[in-house]
């Protein structure tokens, strides 16, 4: 590829600005940001011009080398990142996806897996990739191991295209989900009533948890919830976990819990661990023989809506999910009460 340096005078004619061109079509010209003085007035400006022209020639040589290296399996030294973590970090930065945290999270977990701050591309072998897949399965639940490993494979594929690998070391390793995920407890309608009638040692925790039961909000969204998020008949916010905007209609009970609109935080809560300890004692006092954590409110919200015949698309939307896939996999479950009603529908002989 032929690359030429073109120049254009500034409006005041005092400077000359330079660009690289390799054709006459769109996107075949790139500004360099480098300029020289048209009529240098002193030695400083003369030195500037000399150095600027040298830099221009270096940039042109690098662009030619880049174009020749494509598909050759050779990576020019000025583009090589000797630390694969630097490449991974750069890939994450250049490929942002709104609401999709899996790429960033895959990088964070990979760093924990290797346990060091430097790993060269030559160390990224098929054995290491399989070890990372198994590490994910051992330490994470549900679809998360598969989601993270698929993002990792995407990074490896990109590195291969950029010349870091002759062969893709992760190509033949299949991403797997962890099917041994422990199903979280849920609260039934009867449990709701028991809790509402049982005193709690921290009234703010009680209000906020019942609010989550009627909105499906995560702890991460309830704790920082402000009155600016509260509209006349709904809650509007950007979810902390996913970055996806969410609007949830307010049930009459939820509206009664928060009361009249004020300023600042809606709830004044302790830490998540502290809130879960209060929650555990409260459930024990209500004679609920279940291990209930804050996230159980979100699960209960989803399951009870489904029991009431609400379609999956609506439930997914109210939970802030962009598809019904996660609702089907995580929140849809076998309930004995549903089985009893279903068995009654069989014909009598």
Q: Which quaternary structure do these chains form?
A: single chain
Name the poorly predicted regions. Answer: none
Fraction of residues in H or I helices: 40-55%
SSE order: EEEHHHHHHHHEEHHHHHH
From the N-terminal CA to the C-terminal CA, the straight-line distance is 83 Å
Strand order of the largest sheet: 1-2-3
Largest sheet: 3 strands, antiparallel
How much of the sequence is in beta strands? 5-15%
Number of strands: 5
Mean pLDDT: 85
**Bulk shape:** elongated
Could you give a quick summary of the protein structure above?
This protein has 349 residues and is mainly α. Helices cover 48% and strands 9% of the residues. It is built from 14 helices and 5 strands.
Please, could you describe this protein's structure?
The protein has 349 residues and is mostly helical. 48% of the residues lie in helices and 9% in strands. It contains 14 helices and 5 strands. The strands form 2 sheets. The chain has a 3-stranded antiparallel beta sheet, covered by helices on one side. The longest helix is centred in the first third of the chain and has 27 residues. The termini are far apart.
């Amino acid at each position: 590829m032929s690359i030429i340096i073109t120049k254009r005078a500034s409006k005041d004619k005092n400077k000359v600005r330079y660009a690289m061109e390799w054709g006459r079509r769109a996107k075949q010209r790139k500004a360099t940001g480098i300029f020289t003085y048209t009529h240098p007035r002193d030695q400083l400006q003369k030195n500037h011009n000399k150095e600027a022209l040298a830099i221009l020639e270096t940039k042109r040589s690098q662009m030619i080398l880049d174009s020749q290296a494509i598909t050759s399996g050779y990576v020019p030294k000025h583009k090589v990142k000797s630390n694969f973590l630097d490449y991974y970090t750069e890939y994450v930065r250049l490929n942002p996806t709104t609401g999709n945290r899996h790429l960033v999270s895959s990088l964070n977990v990979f760093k924990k897996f290797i346990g060091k701050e430097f790993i060269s591309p030559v160390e990224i072998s098929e054995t290491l990739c399989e070890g990372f897949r198994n590490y994910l399965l051992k330490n994470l639940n549900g679809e998360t191991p598969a989601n993270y490993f698929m993002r990792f494979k995407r990074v490896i594929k990109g590195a291969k295209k950029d010349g870091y690998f002759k062969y893709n070391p992760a190509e033949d390793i299949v991403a797997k989900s962890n099917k041994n995920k422990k199903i979280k407890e849920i609260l039934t309608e009867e449990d709701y009533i028991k809790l509402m009638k049982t005193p709690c040692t921290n009234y703010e925790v009680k209000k906020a948890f019942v609010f989550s039961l009627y909105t499906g909000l995560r702890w991460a969204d309830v704790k920082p919830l402000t009155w600016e998020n509260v509209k006349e008949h709904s809650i509007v916010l950007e979810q902390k976990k996913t970055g996806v905007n969410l609007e949830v209609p307010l049930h009459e009970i939820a509206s009664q819990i928060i009361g009249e609109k004020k300023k600042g935080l809606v709830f004044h809560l302790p830490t998540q661990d502290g809130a879960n300890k209060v929650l555990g004692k409260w459930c024990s006092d209500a004679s609920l023989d279940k291990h209930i954590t804050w996230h159980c409110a979100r699960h209960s919200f989803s399951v009870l809506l489904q029991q009431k015949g609400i379609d999956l698309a609506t439930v997914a939307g109210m939970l802030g999910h962009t598809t019904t896939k996660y609702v089907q996999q995580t929140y849809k479950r076998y309930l004995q009460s549903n089985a009893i009603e279903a068995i009654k529908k069989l014909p009598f002989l």
